[in-house]
Amino acid sequence: MARPIRVFCFVDKQRRTVSRLVAGVAVVTSAVAVVWAATDVSAEEARDVESKIAGGQLAEDGRFPWMAAITTAEEPDVGYCGGTLIADDVVLTAGHCFDDLSPAELVVRHGDVTLAKADRYAIADVVVAEGYDHDLQYDWAVVKLAEPVADAEPLPLAATDDEDWSTFEIAGWGVTGHTAPSPDLRWAEVPYIDDTECGALNEDSEFFPKTQLCAGELEGEEVNACPVDSGGPLMAEVDGRTVLAGIVSWGSDCYETPEPGVYASVGAQIDDIRAAVDEAGGKPPACR
Known about the structure:
The protein is mainly β. Among the domains are: 65-152 and 269-280, Beta Barrel (Thrombin, subunit H); 167-267, Thrombin, subunit H (Beta Barrel). Helix content is 8%, strand content 33%. It has 3 helices and 17 strands. A 7-stranded antiparallel β-sheet has the order 9-8-5-6-7-11-10, with helices on one face. It has a 6-stranded antiparallel β-barrel with strand order 12-13-14-17-16-15. The chain is globular and about 40 Å long.
């Protein structure tokens, strides 16, 4: 049986070159040595490893009711990508989650912080952002579920990218210690990094301030999204309400160098996202 392909984007810590990790082999946009490669693991192996968002903590039941995971149909209890429920029948995730596997090879999990206990949903349709390419400038995709989530609590979309951002929250079933995806949902707080500083820190890779956001700890303990967190939410408080500000896209090796994570900006692309939801036949997402 073929092993599933696991995808995440990171920047080589020495050359800062954007790479995609595919089934343990790095596909690099220029010829450089990679820091490490993603590892395919079984669900049983995943349960034996304390995996997490770097610097994060376990999420309590109900803490993030909109949180979803995208997994392979072959290994549905092991994370592949994250996602956010933005309507009862629509999940928003990263475009690069569909680089190597078709929707028929994937399922959506939702409803429990322990991935193996979450409900499974078949995927009816996927609309990847128009203009998406491996430079990740438009790294998002709309996933239409075959059936709606009962008693759903979708996360509203940030209506603009002009907010006075300060601190975000991230969540996911991503890896830790370069090993296995987490069997349980974890979360962390990360500070906003302005476009000028982010561009300077990523000067040898492509950061697009019109469609992307930066966040992450640059000093002290590393706090960042990791492989398999791709597609998960970057959340912020706006007028006392949590909104989806961004989508996990790419970043550095999350345990080696304190560099920012890069996220697709939801507010900057909200009209296109809503049009894609309509194209997929999903219910309109709420905005804030």
